[in-house]
C-alpha cells in the first residue's frame, strides 16, 4: 500500500517506501501518479516544488518533470536536458493507492488482495495510518499470532479464550492463513460496548497474510448457538509497507456490516482501534530494540501458537532471497537498487 486515495490530491505528497523517497500527486484528470522524489539535477526533493498543471517545477533550479518522470524543460535555458526520474506503477482501487516499487515489467495488478468491502455499500469502515519504528516482519508476526490479545489487550479485544483456543494454519503460494473459532466464550469489553453482546458468544478469527505486506482478518461474533450468516461481521485490513529497514507504515481499516450509518459507533471504533494499535506499537518498538541489539547465535523459543507467524517470517525470507538472487544474476546495468531486507 502506498497511500489512501484521500491522502493524494493536488498537493505533492512525499512518502518513503523501501528506503526510497516517493512523490505522489493527483493529475488534473483525476488519476494518480508517483515519481522518485529526487530531482535529476541536484537531487532536491520534487515534493518541495510546485505543480504547474501536471508538471512539477523543482523549487531549487526550476527543472520541470512531467507525470511520467521525464524532464520537459528548465527555466535557465531554451533546450531541454535529457533527464528523467523513475515513475512507479500504481493501481488505485477501493480507496487505496497500490504501488509497485520493483521492476515495472513484473507489476501485476492481479496480485493485489481483494478489498472490495472498502467500497461495498453494505459495509462501512474507519481507516488511517500510524508510523511504526520497527521492522515490518515484527508486525507481520504480531498479526499472525493473535494469542497476544489475551495479554496485551485485556481491556478491549482480548481475554483468556484467545490464548486458550488453538489455531489451524494453512499455506498456499505467497499466503499464510489461520482460523481460530472460539465457541461459548466470554465477550471481550470492546464487543460488549460496540455490539451490545452478552456472554456467552461465539467469536471467529480467520486471518490471511498476503506476503509481503497485506493482512486481512475476518471476524464473526454472535450469541452462542446462532448460525452463519447471523451475527456481526467485521474485517480488519493492515497494509504493512516498509519505509526503511526499521520503520514501517502501518495502514489500517476496520470495517463492519451492521449499524453502518451510526457515526457515533464509527467514532468509538476508530478510537478503540487506535488504542489497540498503540499497545501493539509500544510493544513492537521495544521488541525492535531487543532484536536489533541481540548478539548472534541466540536460540529463539517457540510454541504451537507461533506456527502462522513463523511461516509468515520464512515466507518473507524466501521471497527476499529469491529477489536478491535474481538481482545478483542480472547484468550490472540492469540491476535494480537493493531492496529492503524482508520486504
Automatic annotation (TrEMBL):
PROSITE patterns: RIESKE. Keywords: 2Fe-2S, Coiled coil, Dioxygenase, Iron, Iron-sulfur, Metal-binding, Oxidoreductase. It comes from Pseudonocardia acidicola. Residues 1-99 form the Rieske domain. PANTHER family: 3-KETOSTEROID-9-ALPHA-MONOOXYGENASE, OXYGENASE COMPONENT (PTHR21266:SF60), IRON-SULFUR DOMAIN CONTAINING PROTEIN (PTHR21266). GO terms for molecular function: dioxygenase activity. Residues 260-287 form a coiled coil. The keyword Transmembrane helix does not apply. The keyword Metal-binding applies. This is Aromatic ring-hydroxylating dioxygenase subunit alpha.
Amino acid at each position: 500500500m502506498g497511500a489512501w486515495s484521500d491522502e493524494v490530491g493536488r498537493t505533492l505528497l512525499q512518502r518513503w517506501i523501501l528506503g526510497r523517497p516517493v512523490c505522489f500527486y493527483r493529475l488534473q484528470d483525476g488519476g494518480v501518479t508517483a515519481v522518485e522524489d529526487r530531482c535529476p539535477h541536484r537531487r532536491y526533493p520534487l515534493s518541495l516544488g510546485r505543480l504547474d498543471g501536471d508538471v512539477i517545477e523543482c523549487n531549487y533550479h526550476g527543472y520541470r518533470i512531467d507525470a511520467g518522470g521525464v524532464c520537459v524543460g528548465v527555466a535557465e535555458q531554451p533546450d531541454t536536458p535529457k533527464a528523467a526520474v523513475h515513475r512507479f506503477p500504481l493501481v488505485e482501487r477501493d480507496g487505496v493507492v497500490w504501488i509497485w516499487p520493483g521492476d515495472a515489467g513484473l507489476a501485476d495488478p492481479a496480485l493485489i488482495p481483494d478489498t472490495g468491502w472498502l467500497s461495498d455499500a453494505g459495509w462501512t469502515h474507519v481507516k488511517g495510518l500510524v508510523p511504526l519504528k520497527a521492522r515490518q516482519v515484527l508486525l507481520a508476526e504480531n498479526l499472525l499470532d493473535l494469542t497476544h490479545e489475551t495479554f496485551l489487550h485485556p481491556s478491549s479485544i482480548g481475554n483468556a479464550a484467545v490464548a486458550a483456543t488453538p489455531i489451524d494454519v494453512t499455506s498456499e503460494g505467497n499466503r499464510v492463513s489461520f482460523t481460530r473459532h472460539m465457541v461459548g466464550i466470554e465477550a471481550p469489553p470492546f464487543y460488549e460496548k460496540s455490539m451490545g453482546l452478552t456472554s456467552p458468544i461465539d467469536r471467529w478469527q480467520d486471518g490471511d497474510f498476503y506476503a509481503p505486506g497485506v493482512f486481512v482478518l475476518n471476524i464473526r461474533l454472535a450469541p452462542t448457538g446462532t448460525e452463519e450468516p447471523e451475527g456481526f461481521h467485521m474485517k480488519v485490513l493492515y497494509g504493512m509497507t516498509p519505509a526503511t529497514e526499521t520503520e514501517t507504515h502501518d495502514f489500517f481499516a476496520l470495517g463492519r456490516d451492521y449499524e453502518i450509518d451510526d457515526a457515533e459507533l464509527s467514532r468509538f471504533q476508530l478510537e478503540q482501534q487506535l488504542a489497540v494499535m498503540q499497545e501493539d506499537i509500544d510493544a513492537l518498538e521495544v521488541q525492535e530494540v531487543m532484536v536489533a541489539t541481540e548478539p548472534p547465535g541466540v536460540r529463539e523459543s517457540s510454541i504451537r501458537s507461533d506456527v502462522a507467524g513463523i511461516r509468515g517470517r520464512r515466507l518473507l525470507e524466501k521471497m527476499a532471497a529469491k529477489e536478491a538472487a535474481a538481482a545478483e544474476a542480472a547484468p550490472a546495468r540492469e540491476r535494480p537498487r537493493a531492496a529492503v531486507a524482508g520486504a
